[in-house]
Amino acid sequence: LVEAVRALREQTASPGPPAAIGIGAFGPLDLRPGAGCGRLLSTPKPGWSGIDLVGPFRDAFGVPVAVDTDVTAAALAECRW
Question: What pTM did the predictor assign?
């Protein structure tokens, strides 16, 4: 996640920080509102179980961060496009 935060910082250096950040991620994800929202649940992908996907971006940018599944994010992008 450190690299993703760094890459987003570089991409937003010129226009300035984003107003909000949306993350589409593989799951399973904890999407329930509350302290655990945005954490990956038990996954067979080594090293990813329990990772907080939202916190590092919220801490680095100080803006609202939303997370949903990659499938939902793709569907929203298709609708928007």
Answer: 0.86
Asked if 71 and 19 count as a contact pair (C-beta separation under 8 A), the reply is: no
68: β partners: 24
Question: Which residues are 23's β-sheet partners?
Answer: 67
Note the pLDDT tens digit of each residue in 3-56: 999 999 999 988 888 999 999 999 899 999 888 889 999 999 999 999 999 999
Specify whether the CB–CB gap between 17 and 5 falls below 8 A: no
Residue partners of 19: CB distance under 8 A and separation at least 6: 63
CA distances from 22 to 46, 47, 66, 72 (A): 24, 22, 5, 11
Task: Specify the amino acid at residue 13.
Answer: A
